[in-house]
Amino acid sequence: NTLLRTSMSTDALPPATENLPPATENEAPGTAVKAPPPKPDAAPPSVGPKTGGKAAAPKKLISKCERMHLAEQKKREKALAAAAAAAAGAPKKEMSKAEKLFLKEKAAKEKVEKEAAKAAEKAAKEEEKLLKAQEKESKKADKEAKSAGPKKNVSSYFHFQGARRAALKEAHPELGVAELAKLMGEEWKAMSDEDKAPYERSAAEDKERYRAECLAAGIEVKEPKRKKEADGGADGVAEPKPKKAKEAKEAASEVAAAKQAVFFYKKSQRSAIAEANPEAAPAELVQMMEQAFEALSEEERAPFEEKAAADLTRYEEEIAAESAARAEKEAEKAAAKAEATARKEAEKEAKKEAKKAEKAAAKEEKAAAKKTEKKEKKEKKEKKE
């Protein structure tokens, strides 16, 4: 504007009285009319070289990050507008035939795969059910075959007992089962080979019968070991086998288990039955003693039951004492462990406190050094001034 004003000549300007409106009655002719004051909001006109009289604002340059931010903002605005249009019930975009066909084939494929998986699962369940039924039938058949199997043969002494028991019981009604068994054992031991021959034949026939029935039923017959072949030697008593490591670990108690009444009966009758049946194997002897004990009446079992009750009392007392000792030992162990834990905690706390004190001392030392340094600097400054 200043350049334009200076470049314009005063001669080119019109006279002051030209183009003025006529004077009114109160105004003298030739006086200029005052122009209205400019509006405060009106900006002075600007002249530009290429914009037709208006100045062009310089274009602002934006960085790459700003352009990316603006692009992301536009994308979010479009997404929000699309979501708003969908929520407002905007018409969905129509799919092409290819897209519809692809979705249809995909749904059909998923349906076939689902049906195949269901069929496979059903077949697996049916197979498992069939296997369980077969296993159940096999167990049932084995049980029936075992119950319907051939009866085990007995020795010649048992045939002798079967023949003599009734007569001896009638002759000696006051004797119990143990006394009768002892008497029959003494009679069997005193018999000659000729007297034993009928019972030996009966035992041999019974053995052949058992063998034939086992062969007909398809059962393998195992010969029992003789006394000399059995573990333990000629006395026929098998030595106890060593326990496995796992069993020895599980058997923590050192108290002997309580004995049953049959144990005391076996202990009292073992020698008599073994002498009466020298050819019987240890397993056969045990079977004989168990059968004899089962045949006892309640009165005949009473002495052995009393011994079993006394042994049970002994077992309970020893178990209680062992439990008390074990509890005391565990309490001592727990106390020692608690003491060790407390000692460790105390040591840990002491170390922690020492470390804390060391840190505090280092901090105080550092603060004192800093204070001394600051004081020295101040003194130097004062000295310099």
Care to describe what's here?
The chain is mostly helical. It has helices spanning 2-7, 64-87, 97-147, 156-171, 177-190, 193-217, 245-250, 261-276, 282-294, 298-384. The longest helix has 87 residues, at 298-384. It is elongated and about 165 Å long.
* Helix-strand sequence: HHHHHHHHHH
Q: Residue share in helices?
A: 55-70%
Q: What is the β-strand count?
A: 0
Largest sheet, in brief, is: none
Give the percentage of residues in beta strands: under 5%
Morphology: elongated
Low-confidence stretches: 9-13, 16-20, 23-33, 45-51, 227-238
Mean pLDDT: 76
Summarize it.
By secondary structure, the protein is mainly alpha-helical.
Q: What is the secondary structure topology, with strand pairs?
A:
Layout lengths: L1 H6 L56 H24 L9 H51 L8 H16 L5 H14 L2 H25 L27 H6 L10 H16 L5 H13 L3 H87 L1
Helix pairs in contact: 4-5, 4-6, 5-8, 8-9, 8-10
What keywords describe this structure?
elongated; mainly alpha; 385 residues
